[in-house]
Design goal:
The chain is an alpha/beta fold. It is built from 15 helices and 15 strands. The strands form 3 sheets. An 11-stranded mixed beta sheet has the order 2-1-3-13-12-4-5-11-8-10-9, sandwiched between helices. A hairpin with a 6-residue loop joins strand 12 (about 315-320) and strand 13. The protein is globular. The protein starts with 6 loop residues before the first helix and ends in a 9-residue tail after the last helix. It binds NADP nicotinamide-adenine-dinucleotide phosphate (NAP). NADP nicotinamide-adenine-dinucleotide phosphate binds near residues 101, 102, 112, 328 and 347.
């Protein structure tokens, strides 16, 4: 694994990844997903194939290869996450997945977290943007156009915890008392929250690079450094140091420019609790967010709810340094709807859009977004988006996919 690449190497690595997909029929591994995966994956695949066909005629085609994880993997192989699945994602570089059941029980970790950690997919990328016509709990959802970079490997994901009132906690407490004079209530469970300079810098570097590539005006570092100075506070500091050491030609901190960045990207920091208020009051102030794992978990779902898009919020897990990426629906398996051809495939379809953009297949991506905007505006939506809309026609998962395909028009090809 390549550790801690600098800005210029990162840009080269991203270019190299795109170049590797400048081919006619790349192989893309997919996990169908548990629960509603059997409904939303076929619907999504149909849309992906139609978009590629419309965008590139017969010049390009995705060669889909199924890999197993979750319940389907357990039923077939007695393993929740077979090594072969990870190996296949690793071999082909980029893949996509539906939602997976997290098996309940002690000692079994989330399969989603395992995939992210095993492949070192250090960015959880969540773009949050409103589609016209969707009912939302907020008044001005069109003001939300935010891309969130959540650190994906440490903080609470590192998952070091000891159960309360056990010998292990007693041992640790004794050590902490003797070595640090730290007194912790004896019946506490204890968790360790590691936040490293390496992981923080690579996450923030990716967010700044994204802002540069996409002509964004600002990046906010979201943290809780007023309380946790050497983890969250350090995340903030490393972020500002990075702006100076690697991005000073294109970005400037608030402190340095006093809010007058000129034509540079403005980098500021916001304390996590204030951030959750500000995204409700003035979301238009934020373009790109770089944040730690737990803050990012809360913020990405809060933002998704704000645009009414819990069923259509996409996500990607990416290692920009080695190019590996797995894109995924952000909701769960909604087991009560499984097999009913009812739920919204939008989250998985838009995750595919993210995947196409990552591969440099922008024409196919634009085509899907354009048709999704049109179809939702026409009121042709699944049950979740029909709620509260008088002019909506409720479609099935496959019916929504068909409506998208019917609305697709051929676009100009990507330059090759
Ligand atoms: P969930 O599966 O996301 O479902 C909660 C509710 O969200 C559903 O009842 C439904 O609400 C709505 N919903 C979710 N997906 C939808 C879609 N595609 N279209 C329309 N509505 C949708 O959450 P959960 O019930 O807490 O979790 C179930 C399982 O999923 C658990 O095993 C959990 O661990 C797993 N999970 C996996 C992932 C992942 O793979 N990334 C993420 C989260 C949870 P209404 O009934 O109100 O319509």
């Amino acid at each position: 694994m390549v550790e801690n690449l600098k800005r210029i190497d990162l840009i080269n690595a991203i270019e190299a990844t795109r170049e590797s997909f400048n081919t006619d029929s790349p192989t893309v591994p997919f996990i169908e997903g548990d629960g509603i995966g059997i409904d939303i994956w076929p619907a999504s695949k149909k849309v992906f194939d139609a978009a590629v066909e419309k965008a590139y005629k017969n010049d390009r085609k995705i060669d889909w290869v199924e890999v197993l994880a979750g319940q389907k993997a357990f039923d077939n192989t007695n393993e929740w996450l077979p090594d072969k699945t990870l190996q296949t994602f690793n071999d082909f570089g980029v893949g996509i997945k539906g939602p997976l059941t997290t098996p309940v029980g002690e000692g079994i970790r989330s399969i989603n977290v395992a995939i992210r950690q095993e492949l070192d997919l250090y960015v959880c990328l969540r773009p949050i943007k409103y589609f016209k016509g969707i009912q939302t709990p907020t008044k001005n959802p069109q003001d939300v156009d935010i891309t969130l970079f959540r650190e994906n490997t440490e903080d609470v994901y590192a998952g070091k915890e000891l159960e309360n009132s056990t010998g292990d906690v007693e041992k640790l407490n004794k050590f902490l008392k003797e070595e640090f004079a730290w007194e912790i209530r004896t019946d506490s469970g204890i968790g360790i929250k590691p936040i490293s300079q390496t992981a923080s810098e690579r996450l923030i570097r990716a967010s700044l690079n994204y802002a540069v590539e996409n002509n964004k005006k600002n990046v906010a570092i979201v943290h809780k450094g007023n309380i946790m100075k050497y983890t969250e506070g350090a995340f903030r500091k490393w972020g500002y140091d990075l702006v100076k050491s690697e991005f000073s030609d294109v970005a400037v901190s608030w402190e340095e420019c006093k809010g007058e960045p000129g034509d540079k990207i403005l980098v500021q920091d916001v304390i996590a609790d204030a951030f959750l208020q500000q995204i409700l009051i003035k979301p238009q102030m934020f373009d790109v967010i770089a944040t730690t794992n737990l803050n990012g978990d809360y913020a990405s779902d809060a933002l998704a709810a704000q645009i009414g898009g819990i069923g259509i919020s996409p996500g990607g897990n990416i290692n920009y340094e080695n190019g590996k990426a797995v894109f995924e629906a952000t909701h769960g398996t909604a087991p009560k709807y499984a097999g009913q051809d009812k739920t919204n495939p939008g989250s998985l379809i838009l995750s595919g859009v993210m995947m196409f953009r990552y591969m440099g297949w922008n024409t196919a991506a634009d085509l899907i977004v354009e048709t999704m905007e049109k179809t939702i505006l026409e009121g042709k939506v699944t049950y979740d988006l029909a709620r509260g809309r008088s002019n909506a026609k409720t479609l099935s998962s496959s019916g929504f996919a068909d409506a998208l395909i019917n609305n697709m028009k051929p676009l100009k090809k990507d330059k090759r």
